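Explain this one:

_____
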Amino acid sequence: MIPFGLSADVLLGRLLVIFLGIPIHEWAHGWVAHLLGDETPRLQGRLSLNPFVHLDPVGSIMILLTGFGWGRAARVNPYRMTRVKNPRTGMALTALAGPLSNIVQAMILAIPFRLGLLGYLGQTEAHRLAQVLFAAISVNIGLAAFNLLPIPPLDGSRILTGIAPPRVGDFIESLEPYASFILIIVLFFLPQIGIDIVGLMVVPLQRFLFQVLLAW
């Protein structure tokens, strides 16, 4: 039985993200950290595109059922990134790699739309492939946009720490021990009082990326 009435094509698109989007996202974090001199990802076996190295069971199920989820966070150590002068710069570059990888994947998946390649297929086949691609693009863009939120523990907070003045960076880093609580508050409690940070910041970025990627 297909859960929640989702079509098989949408589920297939989400499976593409589970077995490609999430692993590439986490691998990208580790790969950039490795390039900057940090051997932590290599020692933990995270420089692999094997999906099962990077997948979180609950996060994967959430992607399949809702289109939103997560992988198993790749551990890095900015103080071992000896190829940059500032550890915060290294952390920012490493953090940026994950969302950027999802955007690149969405760009690749959008090529059949941009080039009109679906027109060479029959109507039924074109419709089904479009559903698969659109679902995968949607989740990849959603993951990128959400992770770019500048709140701990998301990638956007580490990017902001790397480019912000030192005092701002210090403040953001001081919030890391409370990152899980902050995320719960932002996702579940603030919307109850009319403060929808995700809607204010993520949705416009998603729409912009869609317009860029799927513009005819």
Summary: The CA atoms of residues 110 and 197 lie 28 Å apart. The first helix runs from residue 8 to 35.
